[in-house]
Design a protein that fits this description.
By secondary structure, the protein is mostly helical. It has 2 domains: 40 residues; 40 residues. It contains 2 helices and no strands. The N and C termini lie far apart (77 Å).
């Protein structure tokens, strides 16, 4: 019996989600007209402090990855040179 309630709850949740998406899609043109009329712009908000730090971390990660690849390449060359000398 509880399986039936779980199924019903699942489908009600999905129905609610789809209803919300449908309402948003239907009202989108009206929202755009109101924004134009009121002079509101859809500007991207300034990145938050956390987002800025995350971007810096991503940049550092990419730089570190590049430097690591370069160092590994040099180490491989040295190993090959050493093996050839033996």
């Amino acid at each position: 019996m509880s399986k039936h309630f779980e199924d019903a709850r699942y489908y009600l949740k999905r129905a609610g989600e789809h209803t919300k998406l449908g309402v948003e899609e239907t009202l989108e043109p009206a929202e755009e007209r109101v924004r134009e009329w009121a002079g509101w712009e859809d500007e991207e908000p300034e990145p938050s402090r956390v987002e800025a730090v995350l971007e810096d971390v991503r940049d550092l990660e990419e730089r570190a990855e590049g430097e690591t690849r370069e160092a590994l390449g040099k180490a491989r060359e040295r190993i090959e040179t050493y093996r050839e000398q033996r």
